[in-house]
Amino acid sequence: PALEKFNPTLPETVIELAMNELTRDRSHLSLINANHEIYRLLRDGASVMSANKDGVRETERVRFFDFDHPENNHFLCVSQLWVVGEMHTRRPDVVLFVNGIPIMLLELKASHKSLVDAYKDNIRDYKDTIPKLFWYNMGIIISNGIENKFGSLTSPFEFFNEWKKAENEEEEPKTDLATMLNSICDKFRLLDIFENYILFDESKGETKKIVPRYFQYLGVNKAFDKIIHRKENQGKLGVFWHTQGSGKTYAMVYLSQKVLRKLGMNFTFVIVTDRGDLDRKNYKDFATVGAVYEKETKADSIIHLHELLAQDHRQIFTTIQKFQD
Questions:
Q1: Which of 24, 158, 174, 242 can pair with 179 through a Cys bridge, CB separation 3.0 to 4.6 Å?
Q2: Does residue 55 surpass a pLDDT of 70?
Q3: β-strands 208-210, 199-201: how paired?
Q4: Longest dimension (CA), the chain
Q5: Backbone torsions φ then ψ of 251, nearest 5 degrees
Q6: CA-CA distance, 242 to 255, in Å (whole number)?
């Protein structure tokens, strides 16, 4: 019923075909590849061939989430849900569903238990015994009521991170579970993270699913708001400051992808560094998460940069030294 609500012009048979594509067996794929394939379907919708009343075949796109109007979606939180695998049955602590799709998993331990136990004894076991639950999963929260961390299905334990602020950077940082739940599991932010802040990084020969850290999410959204109001701001968008190793490239990808997806494809992002090795690294980092739209947009010379800036491109990669007369 939720899908019919925001796919009002599509017949029920088309929606059913899309659901068949979403739920078909993907056991032949690795867990991360099945998750990646389904993520694209959930984010972008499913293309379904159907025949109109005149018998002409045409392609229809079915949306699984209404990202622009979170209130149109159906949200459900289930505690102690039994999940049946091929050979085993397991009961995760909490599963969050959006339109019947299980996109978040919460594993909760007693306060005297280590979070490492939740990760090693439960999350790794679930991936082996009930892998289909993770085909649709966006992220995982593990908590013992004192420590609370958020990660992806491919994150090693040390890459599960705290989420210390809910609304903005001006808040006092907190590490409690309520802050994390009010942040990540807020209906608007949950769908915003799902649509705009999930990446699949193939840079090290195997695919890793990347979920944002709280300062990336808050900073990118603040920059995104500045872009929306760029005329009132006279084009001054501000400075997004990072420390070393905090995920600068991912933040650049998040921002550019969200702008192009939500505001239209008539923007050009110029990614500028001061060294050739960083320029090559930026291009490679964008490419390995699938965020490069055209291969010819890396400036090789001053003249080439002039040519690229005069043309219509979504991204241009260059060093600052090429900005010369």
A1: 174
A2: no
A3: antiparallel
A4: 68
A5: -65, -40
A6: 14
